[in-house]
Amino acid sequence: MDTDAWGSDTADTGTAGAAVSESWLTEADYEAPPEVDLRIDRAHSARVYDYLLGGKTNFPADREVGDRVLAELPGVRADAAAARAVMHRMVRRLAEVHGVRQFLDVGTGIPTTPNLHEIVQAVDPACRVVYVDNDPIVLAHSRALLTSTPEGRTAYVQGDLREPERFLADPGVAATLDLREPVALTLVNIVHFLSDEVAHPPVRKLLDALPAGSFLALTAATADLAPERAEVADRRYAEAGISLHFRSRERFERFFAGLELDEPGVVLVDRWHPEPAEAAAAGEGKVGLYGGVGRKE
Asked: Does domain 78-296 have CATH number 3.40.50.150?
């Protein structure tokens, strides 16, 4: 694992330039609900990630970006698997150790198994989860996000991190979450698509809307380890109209201002409570993502 990655969703270690699978989507064979505006002629970050991770919910524009990245950074697939794995570990720890039973996941991405609700409802079937995303393809696949246990509840809300007031007012949020009780806000691999000026205000608004005892679980890309590789990714994404904003550890930590950091604090994601089988490799710290969890007092 020798490159940086900024994706989430299911992992696949396939190689760059692989032949296009017949099961991948094309505009002709994809049937979307009538309310969904596909806009598949432009790459979308969530669908590029899906392609980099071996998924099939992507289109030619997404695969073109992915192939350009993979041509220069072939290790990105394995790194993205580490990013997905840390989300699983974060929410499992929040449910098991901290007793959180409500989750607000903003920037959900293409549904994969296990989804966040499957992880936390395995700890307690009564857990409740609201998924939020601005990609219409996620709306088309939202049924996969709604397979809650009978004891719990899940909902999908169309929304954008930059407009938290709009999705917080959605009836699906009120019907699923009790905002008088602690909520874990999960922002996994989303803020690195926004500048500090754009990202910090909505994150703070979301935290302000949550009660004491709530948590922020956050990951974001950094160029601290390998600036030359970050430059390659930045260039390739920019060519498709997708902006990346890499953060130093100091800049990343600013998101946790006023919060009590859960141990081990802000670290590279492969060092954040790695599973026993991952612990040896975690010491290498080669994944270009910081992660952390903080508690609101």
From this structure: yes
